[in-house]
Structure formats: structure tokens, C-alpha cells
């Protein structure tokens, strides 16, 4: 990744705005929901009456975790107006067993009810499912619910197998160990997981898609069954079509409109959710022009598609960071993130701000600068930058959930601008989302030293062809998720977004930010 021009660096340094990143740390054990995260910035210039923007208004819940643990690999199942989102609960309690299945339920994507753990991991070191892995839930023609899940045991071979459980109510499950399915000789028994099961009406039988490896590359294989107990290997359904041999984790396959969509996440090198599109359930599946909807490096991972019959969604997670440091690497599991997807005429999918969340977050807050570079011209809710080195408008401090919106215009080739979080006394953020016109990309920096480092995560996006950028940013629960032009999402872990100030900046950029508003 090319660095910002040396000339810009010199100008910024002369202004004295490059400061070390303010660090904060949560407790190294336990859930982040139970820990306050305060920064130096969050403690400056507070007034007793009102510390944070909209702190007298109730918050909604946009990116849930439970009090018990973190969210890994969502497995959504829709029925009767409710999304039952099973997931791997990352307890981080040091026990031999791990990742029991738990469940959230929602009918609006801003209220989530935690129903607790529903499928436990095995009770002995010799159990195939001493650790649970991803799977799926469906209902048969007799009204019985079936969960197919990965049984994982690091201590013996086969390390992974597909296992089966049944339920009458989605909450109380009976395991059926005799139905355990092991990898055939053509597949890896180290990587044999993430079953996705559904009924195929035209064939009067069930399909199961499984993530595994064949001839040293990642593949998705297909099994079929008449009774959900005995399965027949039908061979490779889809083979890795990227420039890697990565595993294709957490596959899902469904029809939306007149197209079929196959999705998966690459385990390496990008750690990113992808999808493919076809006119038929059996393929061939083609790579769309933009086959991802969010950025890389576990910023949005393990996405699973689900529809309520009218709208389409992808359920994934945004990772926590090592020891809960903002400037650390992403780890596994975190907060659940759901993107609503819209279908273009050619079948391509694009993420948009969730319509029910937008309707709910309709309480507009008064928004006025707390700091602003003197060269910026303000007229009501419009801010015009003059392209004079580093210019920034800082607003108040954040605590809770917010929807921030603006339309950015008048940007030019080679310019850089974006959003700063956890701003310091010079209104420089320790966390920054950058629109990089030169690289034609959106980038996230988990440091204020964006001039000397590579971004932590990024997303290729054709900024140079855009006439304007309609931006909506959801902020909640240490996660920030941005939507641009109803064409892409960009999600990042930002512990210090809570408690710190935020603003909009330009670097030698004459941008114009119109209709700047914030809601709760």
C-alpha cells in the first residue's frame, strides 16, 4: 500500500498534530460489555450537565454480544417473523470444551433477545464434539427442527466431523451421535465442517454443503439424503476460484429473486466474506464485479445469507482485538453485524443501511462543532474545506448508539479525507476511516500515524468514478459500520470510539460535506 505523500507529512508535522495514539485496555478476561473503556480524550473538557451526544436518549442495540461471551459464526434461521440467530459462543473461560451454540432472536435488528446456550459441547476429552463448530438449522416436513453442526476435537483423528441434533422448539436439543458423518477418502478429516442443509423440492431430498479440502485446495462438497440420517457423497460442488488454496468457510446457498447465491468466507489470505451468483442452483457460479460487500481481516467474517421472503440479509461478526487494544491485531469472534442486501438488475448484491434501523433511529440531535480548523467554512449543516493541509471539524463525544449521515462532494483525484474517532486536543483521531482517492480504496487505520503505516483493513472501491458519496455510519458497542452509496459497507472495531470525540477531516482536500446530521 502506497503511503501518503511526504509533502503532506511535512505539512502535518509542521502543524504539530501528530500525536501518539491514545491507548486504552479492557480487562484481559471477561466480556467487554462488562468493562468501561475510558480514554484521556473522553475525560477532557466534560461538562457536568451533558458529557456525551444524546446521553439523555435511550440506545438501541445494533451489534450484540451476550454477557457470557462473544459472537462467532452466526447461523440464522427465519420463521414466523423472527430471525433465530444461532452462533458459536466464544466464552474465553479457559475450559477444555468450547464454542457451545447459543441463540439471539430479533424481529427488527435493533432489539436482540439472548435465549442462552442451546447445544452444549461434549462432556469429555474423548468426545468428538468437545468443541462445537458451525452448522445450520432447518425444519423437516413433519415440523421437527434439525441442527447439523461441526464436532471438533484437537486430540485425535478425525479432527472434524458433521454431527446431528433434533428439537421440537429450537431451544431444547437431543444429539444423535449415531448420525455422525465423517469425511470420505477424497476429503480432509482435519478440515470437514460448516454443514449447510436444506430441502430441494424439485428432487424431493435434502442437500448438505460441507467445507473441506481436496487435492490441497479448499472446496465445498455436496451430500444428499432422503431422511437426514444417512448421507450420500455427490462430490465437489464448488472449488476455490480465487488466487489461493484457502478453505471456503461457512457456505450458504439460497435463491433470491431469480438468482441463486453461494457465499463463503476465505480463511486466508483476506479473511473476507464473498459471494457467487448463478441462474441455477447447480451453477455454474460466476464471480460478480464486486464479490465482497465489506472489508477484510476479520472486520466482517463468516457471513451467512438468510431471507424473510422479502428482504435478504447477511449475518457475520466483527472481531475483537488482542487483549482489547485498539492498535492490536484482530482476533476470532466478536460482535454480530448484519447487513441488509439489495439486488441489482444484473443480480449483483449490495449492502444498505438496514431499513428498520433507519426508521427507528429518527431522533435528530443538535450537532455543532466543538473544534474546527479556521479555514473551513460552515453554512448550517454544510462544511466546505479549502484544501489547506489537515483540516478537521470535531463534534461531541460519543457514548452509546448513533446514526451519522452526510453527503461528501467536490473530491478530486489524489485527495484523502475521512472520519476520525477518539480525537485528541488537536482533533486528530487515534482511529481513522480514510477515503484514499489515489489508491481507489477505503481504509481503516487503528493509529493516528496513517502517514507511516499500512491500513489494518481495506476495501477496494471505485471512488474515482463517484460523483458524490452518500455516507451513513452506525456506531455502537465498540463497533463502527459505514455504508457508502448503497454499494459497500465498511466495518471496524473501535474500542475508543466510545467515550471519545469524533470528526470529519481532509488532507489537502477541498471536500464539501453537506447535510451533516446525527441521530439516536
Overview of the molecule:
- There is one protein chain.
- The protein has 520 residues and is mainly beta.
- It has helices at 6-15, 355-360; strands spanning 70-79, 82-90, 101-106, 113-119, 131-139, 145-152, 160-167, 173-175, 192-200, 205-214, 217-225, 232-239, 248-256, 259-266, 273-278, 301-307, 312-321, 330-343, 349-352, 371-372, 377-379, 382-384, 390-397, 402-409, 416-423, 429-436, 441-445, 457-460, 469-476, 479-484, 488-493, 501-507, 512-519.
- It has two domains: 6-57 and 361-519, Sandwich (Jelly Rolls), CATH 2.60.120; 86-358, Tachylectin-2, Chain A (5 Propeller), CATH 2.115.10.20.
- The protein is 3% helix and 46% strand.
- The strands form seven sheets. The protein has a seven-stranded antiparallel β-sheet with strand order 20-23-32-25-26-27-28, with helices on one face. A seven-stranded antiparallel β-sheet has the order 21-22-33-24-29-30-31, with no helix packed on it. The protein has a four-stranded antiparallel β-sheet with strand order 1-2-3-4, with no helix packed on it.
- The longest helix is centred in the N-terminal third of the chain and has 10 residues, at 6-15.
- The radius of gyration is 24 Å and the shape is elongated.
Amino acid at each position: 500500500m502506497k503511503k501518503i505523500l511526504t509533502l503532506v507529512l511535512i505539512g502535518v508535522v509542521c502543524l504539530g498534530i501528530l500525536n501518539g495514539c491514545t491507548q486504552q485496555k479492557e480487562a484481559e478476561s471477561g466480556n467487554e460489555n462488562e468493562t468501561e473503556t475510558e480514554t484521556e480524550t473522553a475525560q477532557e473538557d466534560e461538562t457536568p450537565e451533558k458529557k456525551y451526544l444524546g446521553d439523555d436518549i435511550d440506545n438501541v442495540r445494533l451489534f450484540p454480544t451476550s454477557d457470557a461471551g462473544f459472537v462467532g459464526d452466526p447461523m440464522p434461521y427465519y420463521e414466523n417473523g423472527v430471525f433465530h440467530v444461532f452462533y458459536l459462543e466464544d466464552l474465553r473461560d479457559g475450559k477444555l470444551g468450547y464454542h457451545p451454540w447459543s441463540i439471539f432472536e430479533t424481529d427488527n435488528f435493533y432489539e436482540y433477545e439472548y435465549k442462552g446456550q442451546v447445544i452444549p459441547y461434549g462432556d469429555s476429552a474423548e468426545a468428538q464434539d468437545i468443541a462445537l463448530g458451525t452448522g445450520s438449522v432447518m425444519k423437516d416436513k413433519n415440523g421437527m427442527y434439525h441442527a447439523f453442526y461441526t464436532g471438533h476435537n484437537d486430540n485425535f483423528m478425525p479432527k472434524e466431523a458433521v454431527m446431528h441434533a433434533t428439537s421440537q422448539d429450537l431451544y431444547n436439543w437431543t444429539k444423535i451421535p449415531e448420525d455422525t458423518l465423517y469425511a470420505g477418502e477424497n476429503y480432509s478429516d482435519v478440515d470437514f465442517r460448516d454443514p449447510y442443509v436444506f430441502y430441494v423440492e424439485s428432487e424431493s431430498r435434502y442437500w448438505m454443503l460441507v467445507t473441506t479440502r481436496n487435492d490441497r485446495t479448499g472446496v465445498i462438497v455436496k451430500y444428499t439424503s432422503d431422511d437426514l440420517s444417512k448421507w450420500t457423497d455427490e462430490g465437489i460442488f464448488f472449488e476455490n476460484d480465487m488466487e489461493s488454496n484457502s478453505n471456503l468457510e461457512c457456505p450458504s446457498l439460497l435463491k433470491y429473486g431469480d438468482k441463486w447465491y453461494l457465499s463463503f468466507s476465505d480463511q486466508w489470505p483476506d479473511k473476507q466474506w464473498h459471494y457467487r451468483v448463478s441462474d441455477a442452483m447447480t451453477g455454474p457460479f460466476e464471480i460478480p464485479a464486486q464479490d465482497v460487500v465489506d472489508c477484510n481481516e476479520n472486520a466482517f467474517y463468516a457471513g451467512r445469507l438468510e431471507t424473510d421472503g422479502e428482504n435478504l440479509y447477511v449475518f457475520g461478526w466483527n472481531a475483537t482485538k488482542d487483549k482489547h487494544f485498539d492498535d492490536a491485531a484482530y482476533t476470532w469472534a466478536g460482535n454480530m453485524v448484519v447487513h441488509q442486501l439489495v439486488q441489482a438488475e444484473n443480480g449483483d448484491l449490495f449492502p444498505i443501511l438496514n431499513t428498520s434501523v433507519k426508521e427507528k433511529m429518527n431522533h435528530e440531535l443538535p450537532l455543532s462543532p466543538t473544534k474546527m480548523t479556521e479555514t473551513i467554512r460552515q453554512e448550517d449543516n454544510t462544511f466546505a474545506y479549502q484544501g489547506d493541509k489537515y483540516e478537521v471539524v470535531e463534534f461531541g463525544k460519543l457514548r452509546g448508539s448513533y446514526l451519522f449521515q452526510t453527503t461528501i462532494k467536490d473530491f478530486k483525484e489524489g485527495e484523502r479525507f475521512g472520519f476520525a474517532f477518539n480525537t485528541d486536543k488537536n482533533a486528530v483521531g487515534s482511529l481513522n476511516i480514510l477515503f484514499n482517492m489515489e489508491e481507489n480504496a477505503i481504509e481503516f487505520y487503528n493509529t493516528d500515524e496513517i502517514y507511516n503505516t499500512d491500513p489494518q483493513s481495506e476495501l477496494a472501491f471505485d471512488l474515482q468514478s463517484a460523483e458524490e458519496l452518500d455516507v451513513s455510519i452506525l456506531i455502537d458497542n465498540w463497533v463502527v459500520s459505514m455504508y457508502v452509496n448503497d454499494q459497500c459497507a465498511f466495518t471496524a472495531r473501535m474500542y475508543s470510539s466510545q467515550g471519545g470525540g469524533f470528526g470529519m477531516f481532509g488532507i489537502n482536500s477541498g471536500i464539501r460535506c453537506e447535510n451533516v446530521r446525527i441521530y439516536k
